Amino acid sequence: MTSAIRYTAALVILSVTLAACGPSAQDARPSANAGRSSGPTLVTLDGSSTVFPISEAVAEEFQKTEGGAVRVTVGISGTGGGFQKFCRGEIDIANASRHISATEIEACKQSGIGYVELPVAYDGIAIAVSPKNTWANDITVAELKTLWAPDAQGKVTKWSQVREGWPDREIHLFGAGVDSGTYDYFTEAINGKAKASRGDFTSSEDDNVLVQGVGNDELALGFVPYAYFESNKDKLKLLPVDGGTGAVTPTPETIEKGTYKPLSRPVFIYVSKKAAQRPEVQRFIDFYLKNADKLVREVNYVSLGAESYAANVEKFSQERTR
């Protein structure tokens, strides 16, 4: 047998052998959907660090009921950062410590992202100093504006400039990052316009960083979500706020009734209507709203009350935007 004949015979034998063994290498590659049915499905949240403890608590409890069938991820990129991802269709749910803005509504509209806005709790913004601070025991809204107004930058730098009798020492300011809904709400409530503020302060999207910064600095003053104060009472000293009718301490009662003003507010989740068509997202939101009354209290936020959560269940089922 010539070498050419032997080579051709070998090719024939190889082809027959491969055919008998099943699909070709190309056919045997896993498809884009391969393995998805056997692994957990994913529900994604991102946004407000204020809402994070609530959504994280709900996610942990929900996953227990799913037996590993659903994985829920909760990120912290600030309310503004969360809405950017949400309106690009990158996440299923946005955590938000303020209402969605007109610019964000338009961004979602341009991307074809419909949504349902669901309030999930009340929160207050706490004004805190270090326990080492022996002179400040309360503060007025006017004094907060003196400190935080845009034109205070580089000018109001000492405690003595805020109130007569306070020491002639530097004041070190801490507050939420500029992408945070807490920052937006605080600046609007105190300065009359969202994002209108001095810029020479230590900012962070992580409220735990603010707690550490204020707690460890005798000369510091900062604003943090009330729930973070509740979780760190040993590290911070709370300042009651006088909005014109006397100093009021933030408590679950004063926040819920709105007597702690102007620094009380609702916080929200925004659910993509497209994502809401998926069964795992439907189950997660249903679990969220039916268990929020209990879990919100466990993480030191103020519950909306059972009736409000029941109304939200109906609102979600009807996909009403607001």
Number of helices: 12
Uncertain stretches of 5 or more adjacent residues = 1-37
Mean pLDDT: 88
Shape: elongated
Strand content: 15-25%
Enter the CATH topology name of the largest domain: D-Maltodextrin-Binding Protein, domain 2
Instruction: Describe the largest sheet.
Output: 9 strands, mixed
- Percentage of residues in helical conformation: 40-55%
List the helices and strands and how they pair.
Elements lengths: L2 H19 L3 H4 L12 E7 L4 H15 L3 E5 L3 H10 L5 E4 L5 H10 L3 E15 L9 E2 H8 L23 E5 L4 H11 L10 E3 L2 H9 L4 E6 H5 L6 E2 L2 E2 L4 E2 L3 H6 L6 E9 L6 H20 L7 H12 L5
Parallel strand pairs: 1-2, 1-3, 5-10, 6-7, 6-8
Antiparallel strand pairs: 3-12, 4-8, 4-9, 4-12, 10-11
Helix pairs in contact: 3-11, 4-5, 11-12
How would you characterize the overall build of this protein?
With 322 residues, the chain is α/β, with parallel strands linked by helices. It has two domains: 41-122 and 266-317, D-Maltodextrin-Binding Protein, domain 2 (3-Layer(aba) Sandwich); 123-264, 3-Layer(aba) Sandwich (D-Maltodextrin-Binding Protein, domain 2), CATH 3.40.190.10. Helices cover 40% and strands 19% of the residues. The chain is built from twelve helices and twelve strands. α3 links the parallel β1 (41-47) and β2 (70-74). The N and C termini lie far apart (84 Å). Residues 1-37 have low confidence and may be disordered.
